Input
Amino acid sequence: MPSSFFETTPWLIHAHQGEMKNLGEIEPQKQLRRQADRIRRVLSRAHSPEGLYLYMKATGTANADAFRKQWKPQPSSMPAWQKPFTVPEIHLEVFPPGSFYIEIPFTLARPYLSRDDNEFYIVDNPVQREKVFRWPMVRSTSWKGALRSAMRRLGEMDAEAEKRLFGETRDDETGFRGNLYFFSSFFSEADLEVINPHDRESGAGTLPILFESVPIGATSTFYLLYIPLNVCCSPGETIQQAVRDMALVVSGIHAMLLTYGFGAKTSSGYGITRDKLPEKGQLRMQWFEGLLPLPLVSITHLKRQAQVLADKYRKYQEGENDQ
Output
């Protein structure tokens, strides 16, 4: 924020108030309101609209609530030079057999809500953003929690598998990390959602609450890496366990993205994606003879491709038994 921001803001506001006063003497009230809306739109696109809002609210020099109603997150696109910071660079060939990597580009079918820790913002419920470029994001820890919850709700994962995949946190040094590694996902646009709680007796809305959100149609990418930590086993045993774990994980991803959702207020249907991918995804696995890549065109297709790998391992096992 420029150092002169709070020095120039009062001048801007008083200047516009003076302009509106003069207009009020010679123009109808309707045109005066239009002029006020135009001024709010200009100010809402300022370098720091949240700073303007907080200044108005603290000093009372202008109608802060009217200014906030006019404000809306501005659409933007991520510059090409920033995109490499949002995409993990995974060289799966350096990991042991049984390692696999899932990359799923997705499109939101319902808005995504989350909670940022920014206390100085124009709305009370800002979407979670990364610290440098301020892009809306889903943190890696949020993905971990959402996937773990989805897999628990499916009931296919026992306690041993949960520890193996997600690790275990303890107060002492006996805790350990799991085989799954999560990465943050980033969006390039934001919007506003209005939630209006209703009174149980009257059925009428009481006080509308503004939530910053990532809107329907926004795209991002989900990344997941699996590395078998039990490298003491033979490659055959490691891949066998990895194929079993993949079936659990893929079912969980399918449920998380298409049914249960991720982020905040998932019980109300937020954080759901479309099945069809906006561009091709990939499932890659480190096999006996090297890297095995499989393309993805939908989230449902991921389950079919995981079954392809399970069938491939079963044929390998049958061939070993025949020998």
